[in-house]
């Protein structure tokens, strides 16, 4: 007898290997312009001045932040010129683990960061590497310049 419309759990597992997050696919097969890694301590010493990140047309750049323990809050501000940029955040617990084990925390989203400053924050729930992705792969001819600022807040511990 043939059954239709019923997938076994084995079939579902096979599907998940084929379907991959756009963010992970980009990190694996996209063309990278720059990687600017930070430790949590380096972010805490960031200072007031924004930094600049360059993203070539059809490419992406990343800012991996290594976080040794949970509890901190990472915040960011950024703007882009001359046009929009896509932004997302992924987390990988094992720094040398496969990219496929990364978890998408903020899916890549096109931001009008050329018109307004984009800000956001993330509560660190697990140690590992939190990678901020600035994606310009949708733009075939125009390179982008991103001004960004990062801060970190330590958890408040009450006795």
UniProtKB/TrEMBL annotation:
Residues 42-152 form the GOLD domain. SUPFAM superfamilies: Supernatant protein factor (SPF), C-terminal domain. GO terms for cellular component: autophagosome; late endosome; lysosome. One of its GO terms (biological process) is positive regulation of autophagosome maturation. InterPro entries: GOLD_dom, GOLD_dom_sf. PROSITE patterns: GOLD. This is GOLD domain-containing protein. It comes from Scleropages formosus (Asian bonytongue). The lineage of its organism: Eukaryota, Metazoa, Chordata, Craniata, Vertebrata.
